[in-house]
Amino acid sequence: MELTFRLATKEDIPDIVSMLADDALGADRENPDNALSDKYQKAFERIAADSNLELTVVEMNGESVATFQLSFIQYLVNEGGLRAQVEAVRTHSKYRGQGIGKRVFEYIVNRAKEKGAYMVQLTSDKKRVDAIRFYESVGFKATHEGMKMRLG
User: Fold this and answer.
1) CB neighbour class for 19 (10 Å; exposed up to 12, middle 13-18, buried from 19)
2) How many domains does the chain have?
3) Are 66 and 101 in contact (CB under 8 A)?
4) Which class for 122: exposed (0-12), middle (13-18), buried (19 or more C-beta within 10 A)?
């Protein structure tokens, strides 16, 4: 299984939004029928313009099979350390269970090391029990209790 990792382009937005909407939680948040809206386009432009953000598409045989976003965050803690925050990790539903997720996280860890990060961190909705189990299987540990406040 040959996987190609590359930064997303504007042309990838519909595939990415479709993958983000391809589960029970994402279906309530995303609108794949409106993937070319100004909101998605402007968000993509801001991501693409920021050297600390990497929206990545994973392809197999020319087809988008997974996506994720890495954000590199500079801190003063840990002697001024850099952290890699992983968000919006999705494997297309028809490709789940084939080992793609494991390869994606191998790439993520290696990319974080290349950028000089001392830690990779992520959050996951507690309702995503299978995803949490997967993250634990690739080495993540639930060391902190996360909290969020929705503003709108």
Assistant:
1) buried
2) 1
3) yes
4) middle
pTM of the model: 0.93
pLDDT of 36-80, one tens digit each? 889 999 999 999 999 999 999 999 999 999 999 999 999 999 999
Give domain status of residue 96, yes or no. Answer: yes
Q: Is residue 58 one of the residues assigned to a domain?
A: yes
Helix (H, G, I), strand (E, B) or coil at 71: strand
Distance CA 69, CA 87 (A): 5
- Residue 143 inside a domain? The answer is no
CATH code of the domain containing 46: 3.40.630.30
Strand partners, 122: 86
42: domain range? 4-137
Helices (H), 50-128: 77-80, 100-114
3 within 8 A of 100, measured Cβ to Cβ: yes
| Nearest-10 crossing angle of helices 38-49, 13-20 | 110
